[in-house]
Design goal:
Length: 351
Amino acid sequence: MLKLSSGSEARDPAGEPCPQACAATGYKRTRIALLSNPKSTGNIAQLPRIREYCDSHPDVFHYEVEKASQIGEAMRIIARIRPKVLVINGGDGTVQAALTELYNGGYFGDEPPPVAVLPSGKTNLIALDLGARGDPIETLEQLIDLARSDDLQRYTVARELIALRRPGAEDRPVIGMFLGGAGLAETMLYCRHKIYPLGLPNSVSHGLTAIAYIAQLLLKLKSRFLPPRATRTDLVMSDRDTISGRFAFLAVTTLNKMLLSQELGGEGRGPLKVLAIDERPSSVLRAMLTGLTGGYKGKKMRGVHFEEVHQVTIEGESSHLILDGETFRTERGRPIHLMPAQPLSFVKLAA
């Protein structure tokens, strides 16, 4: 079901249904278009407040979808309204699906609006990178104030994106900003399927997941109550040697900050930052200590691989990859290819 929180029977110049905001402004540019996913876990408690807020602010057009397949239709309608800012209300998975449609659909032509992200959902790496923290309503108020002022461009930044191409679907890449693989992906899936269903607070769920991960790493235990061990993974990088092994942690990102909120830096000039940590306790501990004391720039460490590349191919023995919440699987002979996508503009609220 698609839901317009302030819908009407007004129609646009092409004769198609037009939201109330479109009719009220004479088909002029709406300041804010808000795309919400009501099924995002973080939205269950917050969405009634957001709906009430949007109903009292006519320059906000609120559009709700219940599944990713509806986001394309949402973008088509939002594009007719021509908002100054497109705000996404959901977790990283919702953001990833919206970016994929925004990138592949061409709904806004050559000038898509800058994207902002509300801090909602269980995972908020993208929102945090863009400075969105705390209460979603307060963030939405900041965005409205910016859209009403002449300062919006000062807060607009270009962000590199990852284009993930799968065998048989290379012509429609999946777009995201953070990919986890190997042991990291297995631990994320363990948390999603084993811990979150317990209904515990996020902080407790993440703490239990960390304990289970450490137990599996240190003791090499195999149990359905612990995350599975990572399978062997091959990383083939442009202008670099192939790196192969079992990795406790594998991440590819374009975000400015990643592990332990430290600024990343490494050899090369490629936009894709690749961090792989061997599945050995000493390597994991070494990486954590380095992250806590200033990051990886210019440092060589045994068992810790950091590169900045223009593309990377990942192939593994039935290995999971998670790009901003969406899960993929690599098989021998069916690798996943990652490369930069055309940057999009985002609204960054804080440094």
